[in-house]
C-alpha cells in the first residue's frame, strides 16, 4: 500500500552529538586494527540463529515509552537459556540502529530475526553493560538496564530500532557472540511538530448478551439473567470495570452499546438468575451494588465527552445486509431506542449518526443497510477501503448519497489484538503503535491537518485495554499528535486523492462472511416477530410484553453471536419458547363429544385467559363441517363472537345451533385476532345430533293412548268385581250390633273362610298423618 510510504521530516542534529561520535570513532580505531589481524571472529560478527538452541530475550518494560532529550531510558526483561549447555560470562547490552524508513520500514524491521551489526548498530557498552551469572540450560534471569538518553546517539527525528541482546560463550565456542536479541522501537521527536496529526481513538463499551426474554409477572416485571457473568465484567478488576476506569483519564471517544447500559441498569434493582441446572428455576440476583457502582463511574467518566450510541444490541450489519431481508425494519427501531436508553441512564445525549460494521469491512449492501436507519456515517477500515497514495490519508471521505465513510487506520486499529497478558508482547505492541503514529506524522507529502482514526477490537480483554491505555498515555505529550473526537474527525476535510469507491458485495472478505448469522436465524427472527405482533394486538397492556421481547429480538441479531452458532441458536429458541408459553395462556378449553337433542339448542365454547392482564380484540369462530345437518346462527355454517376476558378468568361463549338431521357433526373452534390472523391452535369436538322427528312423536302418542285405555279397562273390571262380591242386607242384622257402626261386615273372615278384601289392592305405603299440630319453627311438608 502506498499508505506506508517511506518519507519523513529531517531535523538537524546538535553539534555536540557529532563531536561525541567523532571522539568515539578515534577511541575505537586502534581496537579495529587489532581485530583485523585476529583469527577469532569479532564479537557479534556471527549472528545467533533463532530457535530452541539460542537464548531467548524478552522485554518487560520500556520506560519511558517516548524518550525525552534529558531523560533516562530504562529497559527491563528476562533471558532464558534454551541451549543444551551452559552460557558463560553472559552480558546484556542495548543497541540503537539507524532510523527506520517509514511505516513499511517498521513492518520489515519487526520481522527481522538474528543479529545484524549493520542494522542493529553497535552495543552502547561500557558501564551500561549488565553482567549476569552463568546460565545453566533452562535457567532464566531478569535484568534491568538504564541508560541516559544522550548516550543512545539519536540524531534526526524519527523511529529508531532498539535492540536488547545477550552475548556470551556457549558450549563448544571459543569466543563471545550474540546468542539472543529482542527488538522494539523508540519514537524520537524531541520537539513538538508544527504539522501534528489529529488522532481519534474509539473506546468501545460492548458486551455479549446476558438478559433473557423472560420477565416476572409481578408489577415490576423482574428481569431474568442467564447467569452472573456480567457482574464479573463490571467489577472494578473486570474487563468493563477496567475499561471505564482507564478511559476516564484518556482522550477517547466512547462507543457504547445501549443494551449493555440497559442490562446493567436492570441489575441495579431486583433481578433473577437461572439456577444453571437446565430447568426454569431461578434464584435472586445479588450484585446490585456492583451494577450501581459501575454505572455511577461511567456517568462520571463520560461527562462533557463525546459518546457514540450504536443501534440497540449492536446488530450485525453485514449479516443483515447479506441475509437479513425482511428484518431491516428492526434497525430503525433499534436506533431510536438507543438514543433514548443512553439519555435516560447516563443523562447525556449521544450521537446515533455512526454505524460500525464488523472489523470495518464494508461493501455496497452494508453501506445501504447501515444508513437505512438514519446514520450518515459508516466506520470503515483502511484494509477494506484501500488508497493508492504515498501517505496515510485522512479518515473522512464522502462515498455518495450523503454518506461519509470514516476510515480507521488498519495497522493502528489491529495493534493490540494479540495476547497482551504476556508483558513482553504488550510492551512491543505499545512501542510499535507509538512508532507508527510518529511515522505517519513525519510523512512529507501528507497535507496539513490530517485526521486519522483508530477503531480497535469491539470487546478488548482487560490486558488489551491496559495496553491500549499505555499507548495513549505515551502520546500525552502531544509532540506529534493532537487528540480529537470522532465527530470532529468525520467533519474533517477529505483528501482529494483518497479512495471513495465502495467495494462490491463480492469483495467482502470470505473469512468474515463464514462467521455471519445464517439464513435460518433470520427466518426464525421473522417468525418470532410475527408471533409477537399477533400476540400484542390482543393485549390491553401491550408494553409489558412488547418491550422485553422486542429487545430480545434485537439481541438475536447482535454482532456478539459471531463464532457462537450454538449459543445463538439456543438463545433464539429460548425467546420463541418463552413467547409461545405466553401466547398459550390465552386458549380454548378442550371439549369432549356433546349430544344435541331437539331441533334447537346452544353450543358453549370456553376461552381461558391465564395472563395477569386483560385481553380483547379477539374473535372466536365456530364452524360446522356439515351445515346441512347442523347449522349455526340461523342457517349459517360458521358463527363468530368477539372476545374480551379479564386477566385470570375464563369466558363461556354460546352459539345458537339448529339440528336438521340426525348424526355426528365435527365442529371446529378457532381464535383470530381482530385483523383476521390465526391465534393459537384450533380446537375440534364432535356434536351428536338426536332430533325428535314427527314419526317418533306419533309413536310416542300412540303408546300413551294405549296406556290410558288399559287403565280405564282395569278400573271398570275392578268396579264390576266389587259389586258382585258385596252381600245383600240380612233380616237378622241390627244396626249398632256387633258389626261395624256403619252396618257393614268388617273385612276378614266372612264365616266361610274367604277373605273379602281385594287381592289386587296394594298395601298402603304411607302412614296416617299425625293429628298433633306442628310445633313452633318446625317445617311441615305439604
Automatic annotation (TrEMBL):
Superkingdom of source: Bacteria
Basic and acidic residues compositional bias, start-end: 764-782
Transmembrane region(s): 696-715
Region (Disordered): 79-104, 721-782
InterPro entries, alphabetized: DUF6049
Keyword terms: Membrane, Transmembrane, Transmembrane helix
Record protein name field: Uncharacterized protein
Biological classification of the source: Bacteria, Bacillati, Actinomycetota, Actinomycetes, Kitasatosporales
Amino acid at each position: 500500500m502506498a499508505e506506508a510510504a517511506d518519507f519523513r521530516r529531517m531535523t538537524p542534529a546538535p553539534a555536540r552529538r557529532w563531536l561525541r561520535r567523532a571522539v568515539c570513532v578515534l577511541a575505537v580505531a586502534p581496537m579495529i586494527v587489532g581485530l583485523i589481524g585476529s583469527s577469532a571472529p569479532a564479537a557479534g560478527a556471527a549472528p545467533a540463529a533463532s530457535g530452541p538452541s539460542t537464548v531467548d530475550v524478552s522485554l518487560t518494560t520500556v520506560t519511558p515509552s517516548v524518550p525525552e532529550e534529558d531523560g533516562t531510558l530504562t529497559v527491563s526483561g528476562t533471558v532464558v537459556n534454551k541451549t543444551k549447555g551452559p552460557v558463560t560470562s553472559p552480558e546484556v547490552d542495548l543497541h540503537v540502529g539507524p532510523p527506520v524508513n517509514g511505516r513499511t520500514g517498521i513492518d520489515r524491521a519487526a520481522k527481522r530475526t538474528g543479529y545484524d551489526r549493520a542494522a542493529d548498530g553497535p552495543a552502547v557498552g561500557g558501564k551500561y553493560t549488565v553482567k549476569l551469572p552463568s546460565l545453566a540450560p533452562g535457567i532464566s534471569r531478569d535484568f534491568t538496564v538504564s541508560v541516559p538518553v544522550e548516550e543512545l546517539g539519536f540524531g534526526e527525528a524519527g523511529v529508531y530500532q532498539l535492540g536488547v541482546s545477550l552475548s556470551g560463550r556457549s558450549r563448544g565456542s571459543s569466543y563471545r557472540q550474540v546468542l539472543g536479541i529482542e527488538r522494539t522501537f523508540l519514537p524520537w521527536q524531541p520537539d513538538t511538530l508544527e504539522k501534528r496529526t489529529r488522532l481519534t481513538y474509539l473506546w468501545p463499551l460492548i458486551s455479549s448478551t446476558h438478559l433473557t426474554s423472560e420477565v416476572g409477572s409481578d408489577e415490576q416485571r423482574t428481569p431474568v439473567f442467564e447467569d452472573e457473568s456480567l457482574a464479573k465484567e463490571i467489577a472494578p478488576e473486570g474487563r468493563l470495570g477496567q475499561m471505564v476506569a482507564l478511559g476516564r483519564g484518556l482522550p477517547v471517544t466512547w462507543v457504547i452499546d445501549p443494551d449493555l447500559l440497559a442490562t446493567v441498569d436492570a441489575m441495579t434493582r431486583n433481578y433473577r438468575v437461572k439456577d444453571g441446572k437446565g430447568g426454569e428455576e431461578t434464584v435472586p440476583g445479588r450484585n446490585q451494588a456492583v451494577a450501581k457502582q459501575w454505572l455511577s463511574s461511567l456517568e462520571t467518566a463520560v461527562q462533557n465527552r463525546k459518546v457514540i450510541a450504536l443501534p440497540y444490541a449492536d446488530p450485525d450489519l453485514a449479516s443483515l445486509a447479506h441475509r437479513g431481508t425482511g428484518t431491516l425494519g428492526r434497525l430503525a427501531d433499534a436506533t431510536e431506542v438507543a438514543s433514548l436508553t443512553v439519555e435516560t441512564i447516563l443523562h447525556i445525549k449521544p450521537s446515533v449518526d455512526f454505524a460500525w460494521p464488523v472489523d470495518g469491512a464494508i461493501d455496497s449492501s452494508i453501506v445501504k443497510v447501515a444508513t437505512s436507519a438514519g446514520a450518515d456515517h459508516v466506520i470503515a477500515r483502511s484494509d477494506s477501503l484501500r488508497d493508492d497514495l504515498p501517505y496515510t490519508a485522512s479518515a473522512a471521505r464522502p462515498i455518495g448519497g450523503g454518506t461519509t465513510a470514516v476510515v480507521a487506520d488498519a495497522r493502528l486499529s489491529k495493534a493490540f489484538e494479540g495476547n497482551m497478558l504476556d508483558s513482553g508482547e504488550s510492551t512491543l505492541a505499545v512501542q510499535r503503535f507509538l512508532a507508527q503514529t510518529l511515522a505517519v506524522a513525519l510523512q512529507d507529502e501528507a497535507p496539513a491537518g490530517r485526521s486519522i482514526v483508530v477503531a480497535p477490537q469491539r470487546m478488548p480483554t482487560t490486558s488489551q485495554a491496559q495496553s491500549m491505555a499505555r499507548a495513549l498515555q505515551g502520546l500525552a505529550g502531544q509532540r506529534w499528535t493532537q487528540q480529537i473526537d470522532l465527530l470532529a474527525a468525520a467533519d474533517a476535510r477529505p483528501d482529494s486523492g483518497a479512495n471513495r469507491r465502495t467495494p462490491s458485495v463480492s469483495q467482502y472478505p470470505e473469512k468474515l462472511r463464514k462467521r455471519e448469522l445464517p439464513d435460518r436465524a433470520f427466518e426464525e427472527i421473522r417468525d418470532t416477530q410475527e408471533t409477537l405482533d399477533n400476540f400484542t394486538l390482543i393485549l390491553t397492556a401491550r408494553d409489558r410484553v412488547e418491550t422485553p421481547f422486542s429487545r430480545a429480538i434485537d439481541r438475536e441479531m447482535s454482532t456478539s453471536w459471531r463464532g457462537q452458532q450454538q449459543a445463538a441458536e439456543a438463545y433464539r429458541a429460548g425467546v420463541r419458547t418463552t413467547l409461545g408459553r405466553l401466547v398459550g395462556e390465552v386458549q380454548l378449553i378442550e371439549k369432549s363429544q356433546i349430544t344435541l337433542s331437539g331441533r334447537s339448542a346452544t353450543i358453549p365454547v370456553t376461552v381461558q385467559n391465564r395472563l395477569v392482564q386483560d385481553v380483547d380484540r379477539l374473535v372466536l369462530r365456530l364452524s360446522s363441517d356439515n351445515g346441512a345437518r347442523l347449522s349455526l346462527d340461523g342457517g349459517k355454517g360458521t358463527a363468530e363472537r368477539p372476545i374480551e376476558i379479564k386477566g385470570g378468568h375464563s369466558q363461556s361463549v354460546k352459539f345458537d345451533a339448529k339440528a336438521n338431521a340426525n348424526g355426528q357433526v365435527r365442529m371446529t373452534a378457532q381464535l383470530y385476532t381482530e385483523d383476521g390472523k390465526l391465534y393459537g391452535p384450533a380446537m375440534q369436538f364432535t356434536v351428536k345430533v338426536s332430533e325428535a322427528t314427527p314419526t317418533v312423536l306419533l309413536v310416542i302418542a300412540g303408546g300413551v293412548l294405549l296406556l290410558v285405555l288399559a287403565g280405564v279397562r282395569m278400573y271398570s273390571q275392578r268396579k264390576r268385581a266389587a259389586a258382585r262380591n258385596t252381600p245383600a242386607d240380612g233380616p237378622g242384622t241390627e244396626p249398632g250390633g256387633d258389626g261395624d257402626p256403619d252396618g257393614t261386615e268388617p273385612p276378614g273372615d266372612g264365616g266361610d273362610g274367604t277373605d273379602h278384601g281385594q287381592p289386587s289392592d296394594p298395601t298402603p305405603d304411607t302412614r296416617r298423618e299425625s293429628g298433633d299440630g306442628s310445633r313452633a319453627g318446625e317445617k311441615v311438608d305439604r
